[in-house]
């Protein structure tokens, strides 16, 4: 496996474009296109929030139907959530406009939206944007990056990655882009992720690989505890690598799933580290667990703790908050066996042993916690299972951004 330069255009046959449609933002791009020269099998995972945005309902229908797709149209600025029949109708209108402009089947056009909830999309501007996207599309890495930038809302940077693997004598590529900064607490934020691959793969294997991996990647991140109405991950496979078909349960499937995990984990961590107002990526590892479920529950509880997140923001080794978060997680463990460590590029330090504080240097702990990437590792010494979760520190910047988000 090799990480290469690029994003959604890295795989054979995929193109991208961006456009400034003036949907909500001014003087910046706010629409993106992903296009495949060949029809794609699709897989998807979606928000479990009962309140689902119109594009989520549209995309789930497309993915479940089995119809092949050749295009994804994404807009930023307005989420098209809580918009009723009119909002859902705009998905259909957008798909038809894309189908006509690109010469593809409208029934297979996928839609993504992110931004303010409750506002109706200016559909005429959206349709004009579709025409611009169709005219500007190409397969360059630059266009892939521009597409990744166009879907940002409060994100501070674009998020993209690509990897290659060998399947038989063929090179298979997986590329992806994502956005997310606030309203991030996925359960399958507004979190969107779009992944492309040129693999020849069965639809069952494609969906299995995505659904199983989401549980260990996107569903293990949190910025603010809010599960969005729009959370969507879409995976498109056009088969242009011409490898032997990858089927579920085979060695080739495991190799593909491993590569997909690299892509998803990278994008998930970038989303977590780019939380609104954040100054640090906060990683939590729980080791020595008796079950995977126990480890994941404990790790997620720590990374979601607002008191712990503010301690990280203050570079304060307030370990009691971590032990407290573990205690209310719902997972059973012996607090008198817990060892806790903080780690960053500034070094590693043990904070507690068997549930009580050790004699550590507060100055060194502060130095470690002052880095842009910080890891807390809790060893509960019960077994061999482990899990990781990702979040960020919680600063006043989060309030500044969200107090006037609509204005």
Could you explain how this protein is built, in words?
The chain has helices spanning 54-65, 84-102, 123-136, 141-150, 203-214, 251-273, 292-304, 306-313, 319-327, 362-369, 396-403, and strands at 2-4, 14-19, 31-46, 69-78, 110-116, 159-167, 170-179, 192-197, 232-237, 281-289, 339-344, 347-353, 356-357, 373-379, 385-392. The mean pLDDT is 94. The protein has eleven helices and 15 strands. The strands form two sheets. Strands 1, 2, 3, 4, 5, 6, 7, 8 and 9 form a nine-stranded mixed β-sheet that branches. A hairpin with a 2-residue loop joins strand 6 and strand 7. It is 33% helix and 28% strand. The protein has two domains: 2-273, 4-Layer Sandwich (L-amino peptidase D-ALA esterase/amidase), CATH 3.60.70.12; 281-404, ArgJ beta chain, C-terminal domain (Ubiquitin-like (UB roll), Roll). The chain is α+β, with helices and mostly antiparallel strands and 407 residues long. Catalyzes two activities which are involved in the cyclic version of arginine biosynthesis: the synthesis of N-acetylglutamate from glutamate and acetyl-CoA as the acetyl donor, and of ornithine by transacetylation between N(2)-acetylornithine and glutamate. InterPro entries: Arg_biosynth_ArgJ, ArgJ-like_dom_sf, ArgJ_beta_C. One of its GO terms (cellular component) is cytoplasm. Its main location: cytoplasm. Keywords: Acyltransferase, Amino-acid biosynthesis, Arginine biosynthesis, Autocatalytic cleavage, Cytoplasm, Multifunctional enzyme, Transferase.
Give me a quick take on this structure:
With 407 residues, this protein is α+β, with helices and mostly antiparallel strands. It is built from 11 helices and 15 strands.
């Amino acid at each position: 496996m090799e990480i290469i330069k690029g994003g959604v255009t890295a795989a054979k046959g995929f193109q991208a474009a961006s456009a400034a449609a003036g949907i909500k933002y001014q003087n910046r791009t706010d629409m993106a296109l992903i296009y495949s020269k060949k029809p794609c099998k699709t897989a998807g995972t979606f928000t479990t929030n009962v309140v689902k945005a119109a594009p989520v309902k549209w995309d789930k229908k497309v993915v479940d139907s089995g119809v092949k797709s050749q295009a994804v149209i994404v807009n930023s600025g307005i989420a098209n959530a809580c918009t009723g029949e009119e909002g859902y109708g705009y998905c259909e209108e957008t798909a038809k406009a894309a189908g006509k402009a690109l010469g593809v089947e409208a029934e297979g056009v996928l839609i993504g939206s992110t931004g303010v909830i409750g506002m109706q999309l200016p559909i005429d501007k959206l349709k004009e944007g579709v025409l611009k996207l169709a005219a500007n599309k190409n397969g360059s890495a630059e266009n892939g990056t521009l597409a990744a930038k166009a879907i940002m809302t409060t994100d501070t940077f674009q998020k993209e990655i690509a990897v290659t693997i060998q399947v038989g004598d063929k090179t298979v590529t997986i590329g992806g882009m994502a956005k997310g900064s606030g309203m991030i607490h996925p359960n399958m934020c507004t979190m969107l992720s779009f992944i492309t691959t040129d693999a020849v793969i069965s639809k069952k294997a494609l969906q299995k690989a995505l659904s199983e991996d989401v549980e260990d990647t996107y569903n293990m991140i949190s910025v603010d505890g809010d599960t969005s109405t729009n959370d969507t991950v879409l995976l498109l496979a056009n088969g242009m690598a011409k490898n032997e078909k990858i089927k579920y349960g085979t060695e080739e499937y495991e190799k593909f799933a491993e590569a997909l995990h690299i892509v998803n984990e990278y994008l998930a961590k970038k989303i977590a580290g780019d939380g609104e107002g954040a100054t640090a990526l906060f990683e939590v590892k729980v080791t020595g667990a008796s079950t995977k479920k126990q480890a994941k529950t404990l790790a997620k509880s720590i990374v979601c703790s607002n008191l712990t997140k503010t301690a990280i923001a203050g570079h304060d080794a307030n370990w009691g908050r971590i032990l407290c978060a573990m205690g209310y997680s719902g997972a059973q463990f012996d607090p008198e066996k817990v060892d806790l460590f903080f780690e960053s590029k500034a070094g590693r330090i043990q904070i507690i042993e068997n549930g009580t504080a050790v004699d550590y240097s507060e100055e060194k702990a502060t130095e470690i916690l002052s880095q842009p990437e910080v890891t807390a590792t809790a060893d509960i010494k019960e077994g061999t299972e482990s899990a990781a979760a990702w979040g960020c520190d919680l600063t006043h910047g989060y309030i500044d951004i969200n107090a006037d988000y609509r204005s």
